[in-house]
Amino acid sequence: MALQKCGLNRNNKNKELQPHGSLEFPCAGYESTHTNAICDFIPWHWHEEFEVIHIVEGSMKLQVLSETFTIHEGEIAVINANALHCASGDPYCKLQSLVFSPLLITGNVNSAFASRYILPLISCTRFSGIVLKNKKASASNCFSIAFEALKNDAFAYEFTVREQLGHIMLATYSELEPQQIVSCIHQNINSVRVAAILSFIEQHYPENITLSNIAEIVNVSERETLRCFKKITGESPIQYLLKYRLIQSASVLTEYPDKNISIVAEECGFDSPAYYTKKFKEFYLCSPREYRQVHQAVF
């Protein structure tokens, strides 16, 4: 089974819409490289599947709504199903990942695998992601066996992948405290607020958005909005809004090479073309025009 092409297609709630694998075998493999440049940023998104990431080279910064991890070469990270996350190189990484349905491990929702291990993991709101430190070598070995079998379409790779991912998920369960997993019944209110803010920004970024508008969405004060968003993401809502507008504008510049740059700026939420160009240069280290020329030459 060949690796799938990387790419994020999200709905207005940041859910990734790309299918991972097939109904017959709900697992997909990916391989990509990333830097800490803004154009390489993997934006906030979530999917119903688990994701296991293996860093082949370099280091990666992984953010979930409750924590930030630095994953080094040879390490394995596991992201929970339905967990909002984003990532970037730190400053560079080559990664391999397997994204798979919980049903690949459980078989069905009524099995002992589901009721005793996988469903408690999914429902544990304190588990958004984890780096497997205690069983680094064995988890890395399990991942490599699974990934190579999938990538090379090895004989009976389905059995191999399911078995090795089962070992990784058991290691995940074991590394967390089982009592803590079972007792996770209260959802983190900060995570709920930040998810709502991200969804609002990414639906309304072309509009005139203020911190007051954002605070109204989560029904708290501006100060509390700033506090909880910055605590989880490391930046203010307005900083995230600016970054998101610039990323969207860069996509428009390359997808519509004949569109006037002033129009691009306006459509992406910038009142002033001069301000847009200034901020674009700060993020991309080149002007919008230069960015468009370089990417036209490449593609």
TrEMBL record:
Keywords: DNA-binding, Transcription, Transcription regulation
PROSITE patterns: HTH_ARAC_FAMILY_2
GO MF terms held by the record: DNA-binding transcription factor activity; sequence-specific DNA binding
UniProt xrefs under CDD domains: cupin_RmlC-like
Gene3D superfamilies according to UniProt: Homeodomain-like (1.10.10.60), Jelly Rolls (2.60.120.10)
Any Pfam family hit: Cupin_2
Superkingdom to which the source organism belongs: Bacteria
SUPFAM superfamilies: Homeodomain-like, RmlC-like cupins
UniProt keyword DNA-binding present: yes
HTH araC/xylS-type domain residues: 195-294
Protein name (record): AraC family transcriptional regulator
Organism: Dorea formicigenerans
